[in-house]
């Protein structure tokens, strides 16, 4: 693991700890969403999905739409694959 990746891992861990202690559910949800989005932009998809809190299907699909450019940056047509898998879950 390189020094920058160790640094960002520690920063994300710190951010998650801060989000965990936020009492207001709306603000905590927003904070977790921002952390997950930052993880996706860093190409850390598994971790992003891991930190997400329970949410509505509509909200989840909107988030996937927001993240689509990051999926495509990682691999061509990855966003299509992600959406197909999300639809399978709903069936």
Short description:
Helix content is 80%, strand content 0%.
Structural category: mainly alpha
**Between the first and last Cα atoms, what is the distance in angstroms?**
39 Å
Written as H for each helix and E for each strand, in order along the chain, the element string is: HHHHH
* Net shape: globular
Averaged pLDDT, please? 82
Major sheet size, sense and barrel closure: none
Structure description:
The structure is a single chain. The protein contains five helices and no strands. The chain has 91 residues and is mostly helical. Helix 1 packs antiparallel against helix 2. The radius of gyration is 14 Å and the shape is globular.
List keywords for this structure.
mainly alpha, 2 domains, 5 helices, disordered N terminus
Map the helices and strands.
Blueprint: H1 3-20, H2 25-41, H3 45-51, H4 57-74, H5 78-90
């Amino acid at each position: 693991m390189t020094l920058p990746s160790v640094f960002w891992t520690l920063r994300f861990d710190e951010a998650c700890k801060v989000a965990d202690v936020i009492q207001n559910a709306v603000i905590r949800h927003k904070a977790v969403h921002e952390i997950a989005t930052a993880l996706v932009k860093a190409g850390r998809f598994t971790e992003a999905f891991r930190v997400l809190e329970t949410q509505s299907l509509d909200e989840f699909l909107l988030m996937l739409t927001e993240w689509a450019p990051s999926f495509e940056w990682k691999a061509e047509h990855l966003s299509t694959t992600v959406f197909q898998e999300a639809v399978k879950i709903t069936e």
